[in-house]
Structure formats: structure tokens, C-alpha cells
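ok trying again, last paste got cut off:
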Amino acid sequence: MTTVTLLAAWQGDDDELVTLRHENGGWTLEGRLSGPDVAVVVRLDEAWCIRQLLLFRDLDEPDLWLATDGNGTWGEMNGSVRDELHGVVVAGVAGSALVHALAVRAGGGELDVAVVDPETLEVRVERRGYLAVGDRRWRCGGDEWAVDHLGLPRDLPGRARAV
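nice, full thing came through this time. structure:
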């Protein structure tokens, strides 16, 4: 089992601590965001494609549990299909650096990204363009940042830096 830990220190008092583990033929990202005080678990397959996203606030059970079949169909743990997420390949929590890592691992380009608001649990889809601009450098909108060998952001100027 391979374990990598990334701590991204955010501007202000918010921190994000993420543990990355390789297990059972895939990857598990476990994160904690201190600002909204939520825990996030993202389960990925061997190729880093999202299979599940779980968000925990103050309960032992997830407040939100999204899953995808890998072919663009998304649903919730209770069996509800989330048609508005059809075709989404990247999902993450607002304020998290991991959404950029998952977009980079997906190869970039024009992507529909599902962004979860940790306070309301609203999931909105945003069209984002991710462009490789150099060796281990990426751009999305007006932001440009470096990534490590795993595609994890090292610095998001004005917002986060890995420590």
C-alpha cells in the first residue's frame, strides 16, 4: 500500500489535510477542510477516475454520498439518479485543492466539474477549462499552478500552498 499525505495551507484560517492511499485496486483520498469543518472521502479507480464522493459534516454517516458508474451516470446512495450530473468526470468540494488534482489527472481540457457546497450540500456543475502550460504547470481561468508527480497542486497563488 502506498500512502502520501498532502497538507494544503489556505489563506486565512482554513486548512485542508488530505491523505492519499492506494488500496484494493484503486485510490482513496480522505480529506478534512477546517474552514467549513467537513470531511471528504473520494474513491477512485486505478486510473484516478472518480467512483464515489462522500461528504461528512457532523454525523458518522455521510451527509452526501454520490457515486458514478464511470460512464457519466451519477446517483446517490439511496438510489436516486442525479441527471444534472450526467457526463461529469470531476467532482469535489468548494474550497478544496483536490478538485484541481482530479481535473489534472483526468487529462485536463474542457471539463464539466461537479462542485459541492459543504454548507448546503448543493451540487452545481461548472464548465472549466484546464490547460497544461508547461512541465507540471496547469492553468484554469486566471489561476496557474504547479503540480507534483501525482498531479497534486503544490501552490494555488493567493489561495493555497502545500506544506
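cool. The longest helix spans residues 98-105. Helices lie at 98-105.
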